[in-house]
């Protein structure tokens, strides 16, 4: 982690530093495209329906607010209750790691500022690890 965020950027939210809606949409779409195409994520992919249109939109809306942008998910659905929403799925370390593989790869492809990348990697790991229920 050692990279420091430029002081001029410290006033920005991670959502703004990422690039707003357009870049967040690319991140989410690439995440799901990777999940569907990478054989190493078969367990994770099997937890999702064939049509990922709705879940892509929900992740986009959730991440928007989670990253400090518009609270789209909360406005539509209320509190995310992430852990409760994931209880029907067997989320173990393997599923967590598959999710992180897709997210980290999608982030790598965006060529993010290193300090933002480190911050997001840590935040995504903590959140994904919290989802484990097995």
From TrEMBL:
Q: Which domain of life is it from?
A: Bacteria
* Residue ranges of coiled coil: none
Q: Which UniProt keywords apply?
A: Heme, Iron, Metal-binding, Transport
Is Metal-binding included in the keywords of this UniProt record?
yes
What terms describe the molecular function in GO for this protein? heme binding; metal ion binding; oxygen binding; oxygen carrier activity
Similarity comment? Belongs to the truncated hemoglobin family. Group II subfamily.
The protein's name:
Group 2 truncated hemoglobin YjbI
UniProt lists the gene as yjbI
């Amino acid at each position: 982690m050692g990279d420091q965020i430029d002081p001029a950027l410290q006033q920005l939210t991670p959502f703004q530093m990422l690039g707003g809606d357009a870049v967040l949409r690319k991140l989410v779409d690439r995440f799901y495209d990777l999940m569907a195409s990478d054989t190493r994520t078969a367990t994770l992919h099997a937890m999702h329906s064939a049509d990922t249109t709705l879940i892509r939109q929900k992740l986009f809306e959730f991440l928007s607010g989670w990253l400090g942008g518009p609270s789209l998910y909360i406005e539509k659905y209320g509190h995310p209750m992430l852990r409760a929403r994931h209880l029907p799925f067997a989320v173990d370390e393997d599923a967590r790691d598959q999710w992180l593989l897709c997210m980290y790869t999608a982030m790598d492809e965006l060529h993010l500022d290193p300090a933002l990348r480190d911050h997001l990697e840590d935040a995504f790991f903590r959140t994904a690890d919290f989802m484990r229920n097995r």
